[in-house]
Structures are given as C-alpha cells and as structure tokens.
Amino acid sequence: MTDMNQENEGDLQSQIEEVEALSSIYGDEWCVIDEASRIFCIKISDDMEEPKLTACLQIILPPDYPSDAPPIYQINAGWLRGPERAKLASSLEDLYVEHAGESILYMWVEKIREFLTEKSKDSGTVNQPENVNLTAEDLDEDADDLPDFSGLRQNDSLHHFTDHPHGEETPPMKHGVCITDRRSTFQPHLAPVVTPRQVKMVLEKLYENKKVASATHNIYAYRIFCEDKQSFLQDCEDDGETAAGGRLLHLLQILDVRNVMVVVSRWYGGILLGPDRFKHINNCARNILVEEGYTATTEESAKSGGKSKRPKTKRMK
Predict the structure, then answer these.
(1) How far apart are CA 263 and CA 187, in angstroms?
(2) Its pTM surpasses 0.85
(3) pLDDT at 304
(4) Is the peptide bond before 192 cis (omega within 30 degrees of 0)?
C-alpha cells in the first residue's frame, strides 16, 4: 500500500509539473476546468496568428497517469468527422504506446496541431463556424445543448484506450431500417463489442462503406460491462451533431444494455429538423436494439406490468 501511495504521489507531482509547463507554453489557450478532478482543456489552432482550423482537446488525468495509464480525452471540432477523426485518434494512441510511462500531453497537442496544419494545407481556406461544436441546426437550439465542460467525468464522451491482443475478428454488424424526414435520412448500425479495440475495429469497418463514410454525421455510443470490476466502460461520439452522442449513450443506460455498440448515420437533406433529429436518432437506435434482442419492445414491457425488466444480454458467438 505504501509503494502504491508513493507511486500515486509521484504521478501527481509529474502531473503538476506537466500542467505548469503547458500553462507556461500555451498561455491563455490552456484552461483549467476542474483542478481537483484533474480536468483541463486546450484550444489548438493550425496557425497562431491566422487560424483556419481549430480544435479543443479536453483531458482528464487519472491518478496513475503517467506511470500506468494514459490521459482520458475528447476532441471537440465540428468539422472533424469519420475517418479523419479515427485517424487522428489512432495517431494519439500510437504516440502513447511509443512513450508509455512518460508525460504525453505536449506531444499530443503538437501532433494535433500538425494534423490541423496538414488538413488546412490540403483543404485550402476552410470555412468553419466560430464555435467548432455547433452544427447548422444548433443555431436554432437552446444553449443547454452546448457542451458543459464542468460536467466532464470519466464515463462521459471521452476516449479510453488500453493494450489489447491483436488477431481479434471484427464483430458482426447489423444494419437497421432507415427513417426519413424532410429529406434527412437516419440509419442505425449495431455490433456486439467486449473491448475498446473492437469498437475501433467496428468503426474502421463501417467507414469502408462509402455510403456510411459520406454521411453528414455518424453518431455512436457503446457500453461494455467489465466483469472483474463490476462496472461499465462506456463512451460516445457526436461526430459534429452536438449533444447527440450523449443522448444516445443515455438511451443505452436507460435500457441497461451491455456489450453493444450502436452507430446512427445521418445524411442531412438541407432542411433543419430541430429537436426532431434527436428523436429520430434515438428511435433508430431503440428499433435495432429491439430487433437484435438487446431490449424488450414497448408492448412486451407493458405486458410485464411496467415492471423494470432486465434486458436480454447478447453474447458473442
């Protein structure tokens, strides 16, 4: 126990020194969200003087970072979608693996800046909204749909990664029925997952489909039950559709499903749907969860007298 306390004290000291250094280097771009919970945020641009692309990196530092665990992070950038987001996340993961046990945040920030610079050069002048988290439809939404940094916790929409054995097969995927409203189309996809590595594999496989890759948004959420810790590993992604990922994850939590990932693709048709878009995203997700036996239908729940019934747990074959 003493050794563990000493190690945690060493990690805390390393974190304090790293945060002080980053604050000195980046000035006003570095922001402390909750020092007690070790939550921080940094605004990163491709060019300090004339930024064309900007992203916000939100970070939680676990007690055993940097010795044994990576930072938990989220990248907010409304223009960053699909394969590009996965590519950037993969490069950050590779950096961590290469420098495991070391302070990694400065390298991550500069890797993201390098990514933004390359993207800016490839795309020429990029028109991005002032608030990178806003989509076109968010302009007519209430402010409570905007991200709340103060509410960040380790089970929120953040990236967790750990080492996983290679050679895993991509889990089988199911594709649900589309919902179309005012020229916008929503389609759900579902896969059983038991590791974050499988989540990444499912996303990579989905983006091989040109239709899915061309979607305006690919919103996803997953929940994995860890038997050893009797707790859930869960995550979600808006993919530019602000607050949609969190709402989707909330649905999975309410239904108490486990070891499953749901992706909802949306192809925007040019007409604003307002709050209806969230209804369609959740209806798509619920429909495919019912079809694949992860939860009961509304009628089945009613027949059981409205009692809380533990949803069916889908097992990997």
Answers:
(1) 8
(2) no
(3) 44
(4) no
Match 């239709």 to its residue by tokens: 211
Distance CA 63, CA 36 (A): 11
Residue 225: exposure state from Cβ atoms within 10 A (0-12, 13-18, ≥19): middle
* Residue that the structure tokens 């608030």 belong to: 131
Helix (H, G, I), strand (E, B) or coil at 155: coil
Spatial distance between the Cα atoms of 146 and 162, rounded to a whole number of angstroms: 29
Alpha helices in the chain (DSSP H): 2-26, 82-98, 105-123, 196-206, 210-213, 244-255, 276-291, 298-303
Q: Rounded to an integer, what distance in angstroms lies between the CA atom of residue 298 and that of residue 289?
A: 12
Query: Is 44:80 a contact under the CB 8 Å cutoff?
Result: no
Contacts of residue 255, defined as CB under 8 A and 6 or more positions apart, other chains included, come to: 286, 289, 294, 295, 311
Average pLDDT over residues 230-249: 89
List helix spans (H) across 50-130: 82-98, 105-123
In this structure, which amino acid lies at residue 268?
A: Y
Structural contact between residues 266 and 185, judged by C-beta atoms closer than 8 angstroms: yes
Q: What percent of the chain has pLDDT over 90?
A: 21
What would you measure as the largest C-alpha separation in the chain, in angstroms? Answer: 63
217 phi, psi to nearest 5 deg: -140, 140
**What 8-state DSSP symbol labels residue 284?**
H
Q: Please give the single-letter amino acid code of residue 306.
A: G
Q: Which of 203, 205, 194, 136 is nearest to 165 (CA)?
A: 194
- Reference 238, options 5, 45, 58; nearest CA is 58
Distance CA 185, CA 187 (A): 7
Least confident range from 31-35, 114-118, 169-173: namely: 31-35
